[in-house]
Amino acid sequence: MQFTSSEACLTYYLRYAFEKGFGVMKNGGASKDCKERCIFTCARGGKPRGKSKKAITERNKLVVKIGCKAALYVKLNSSTNKWVITEFIDKHNHELHPEYVHKIRCFRHLKEWARKQLELNDSVGVSMVANINAVTQMGGGPKHCGFTERDCRNYLAKLRRGNFQKGDAAALMQQFREKILKDPNFYYSYKFDTNNRLETVFWADSVSRSWYRYFGDVVTFDATYIVNRYDLPVAPFVGVNHHGFSIIFGCAMMTHESAESYKWIINCFLECMGGKAPESIITDQSLSMKKAIDATLPDTTHRHCTWHILNKLNPKIGNNEDAASDIKNVIYKSKTEDEFEMRWQSTIRQHSLEDNEWLKEMFDIRKSWIPAYLHDHFWTGMISTQRSESINSFLDNYVNSKTTLRDFGKCFDRALARLRKREYDEDYECKRGTSRLISKYNFIEQQFVEVYTREMFVKFQHEIKALIDSRFTMCECLGNRKVYNVDDGDGEFKVDFNCDDQTFECECHLFETKGLVCRYALLVYKQECVTHIPFAVICCHHMS
């Protein structure tokens, strides 16, 4: 096979790489200007950059270069003035991903028409999100347009360096009916009032339902978001996926925030999810919501949002900063229920707050919001409805006070698509390379890097880094168990280590609440010369 130029050789190899699913880089070899010879290598060829001290403290970066030898060698035949292939190495030392090929750098190019459209939209005040979405759809969607959101954002950044209308509810219902034709597992349910007006509606598509099967152990539910023409509360069911990203399991709108409305919504949610109730749910202190949850989710642990409660603390105690600081210390630093109750009463007496009715009420419901009573449950790191509020803030990019019901469904779909694109992108990043190991105990790191997503592995590495400040203060042997006292400078925690199955219980409860092996347990594993972490302490929620 002969080619008229080295660029023709590259075009040929790129076409092949596109079909197989790998990137290509141009390497001149002995003749870097490719006048006589040229090497086109797999983009994962070569060696990664050396690890520096700065790299350890910065956000973990992907290791993309792994020494892949796949390449195409070509040279110029001087007698025919044609380029010929001298060697073709087809074997890669990594998986190929044709499904992600549109994201690989060498296949991306922001075409002239796309640049002009981005400029035009930007000049008339179209938001960045709306602008990028429009141009992407004009190009055939994310997989076919030939460029990514990052390409558009980079180009724009460079460029700038400068009550229901008639038929509105019916239109939303029609949208839902049309969705079922495209997505047979799309679920929706609605209820009309006595005047035949839409009162409550709930919906979830097939992707949200499948997400719930995997990540529905903890849910936050918040109905404080009101951004539409009719001031209807929008209440999304929100969770956290294996990347640590917020995801939406379903959404509801209602005209009345009553216990009956919440019961109806939760029952729809349960029916949609095949009767599977979440293990835990986080809400604000809405009494009507509590009544509904008690009636519909009797076996689910109900937690009140800690942030909302503590946000009221200062005004409720006369803006006494010293008392507020001491109370927060008691809330967050108490390891056990008994310790909390003892310290709470002592602090209340110290600041003469025994007659404060609000503090009495908060103490009476302590089991629903104080960490010491809830640290035996998995919360994916959540103690508040912050995830729901972040979704609400995210939706602000798509809806506003003028959005009608007719438009809300479409706007919500666009927001949902963007959330899912973020997960899709992170799935690709996890497949594109592996995170760099940072410690000399890399046999432990290696076990987790192979099973955890990139984001969760970075959080685990935070505990690895903290080992340097941790030390033993005592060890006690109790039959097949050893109880270690470990101090990291911020406090001392007991680690109960089982010598038979190599599992542990730690007073910090990081594993129970967040699914991460803590620095204290890691120090014990190091001391006990454990080289293989038991599967029981690998959190399935964080697995890729």
From TrEMBL:
Pfam families: FAR1, MULE. Residues 218-311 form the MULE transposase domain. InterPro entries: FAR1_DNA_bnd_dom, MULE_transposase_dom. Residues 12-97 form the FAR1 domain. This is Protein FAR1-RELATED SEQUENCE. It comes from Rhynchospora breviuscula. The lineage of its organism: Eukaryota, Viridiplantae, Streptophyta, Embryophyta, Tracheophyta.
